[in-house]
Amino acid sequence: MIQACNLDEMSESDFIDTKKDCNKTSKEIAEIIKQINSLVLFQGYEDKELKSVIGYMYRRKVTKGEVVIKQGDVGDAFFVIRSGKYDCTVMKGGKSTRIRTYEGSGYFGDLALVNHAPRAASITALTDGELWVLNATRYVWLKKNQAVRNAECFERVIRQIPLFSNNLTDSHVNSLIDAIEVLTMHKGDVICRQGEPGDAMYFILDGSVSVLVGGKQVRTMGANEFFGERALVLDEGRAATCSALSDVKLAKLPKESFEMLIPDSVVASMREYVAKAYAKTAQK
């Protein structure tokens, strides 16, 4: 559970990690990335952004027998093991049960930050060691800044697509910004597959996407383009498979939000747009 604070009123000196030892070797940074890049806690971060997050992780020494996390306490930090051995235990019915043991690598403390819930287990150091620590307040501050950057990027894309910029009010755009989910896909990742139900449309914020029909590449798409709208406006399966040609940053608009937020006039224009695009493809 992250304690309430007004981030807008905080200065750098107010953060607990300020002036802590945050120095890391390139090897240590790579190892931390390897361990945490699939965590929900860091979902949507590009590699550059993730390195920035890691830059705020500070080194903390622990001694044998020290309780790093106590079950039921407020979740005030996330930890990545630099060295040492640690037991994870859960107290239930007056009895302590060992869940797992960490040795030399691993992480803990992420669920309390994601779920805003008290610590679900205790972590005790079995040896002396060191941890990389990301303070919860810093994490919230970083997430807020990331959300602002993503919103600004998405708005720039929307403003550069005539179909949307000419038909959506500022209120519509703001509602869309609140509804999107920003995703980072890696080279080779399949974003949507031909024939599957259409549950969202996508806007490309950065990177490139390959469009394949029947396994054959028919086009590539880049920043400020969108795809997946056909399955939504025509209520049919995906017409193509779309895969990341490079690391690509996408804004995903779920079908439910699309139906609720996109005005009927824009949907009609999109149907016309899809029909013309389909006709051109069929002629080739």
UniProtKB/TrEMBL annotation:
SMART domains: cNMP. It comes from the Eukaryota. Pfam families: cNMP_binding (PF00027). One of its GO terms (molecular function) is cAMP-dependent protein kinase inhibitor activity. InterPro entries: cAMP-dep_PK_reg_su-like, cNMP-bd_CS, cNMP-bd_dom, cNMP-bd_dom_sf, RmlC-like_jellyroll. Keywords: cAMP, cAMP-binding, Nucleotide-binding. PROSITE patterns: CNMP_BINDING_1, CNMP_BINDING_3. One of its GO terms (cellular component) is cAMP-dependent protein kinase complex. Signal peptide: none annotated. Residues 41-139, 164-262 form the Cyclic nucleotide-binding domain. Belongs to the cAMP-dependent kinase regulatory chain family. PANTHER family: CAMP-DEPENDENT PROTEIN KINASE REGULATORY CHAIN, CAMP-DEPENDENT PROTEIN KINASE TYPE I REGULATORY SUBUNIT-RELATED. This is Cyclic nucleotide-binding domain-containing protein. It comes from Macrostomum lignano. The lineage of its organism: Eukaryota, Metazoa, Spiralia, Lophotrochozoa, Platyhelminthes.
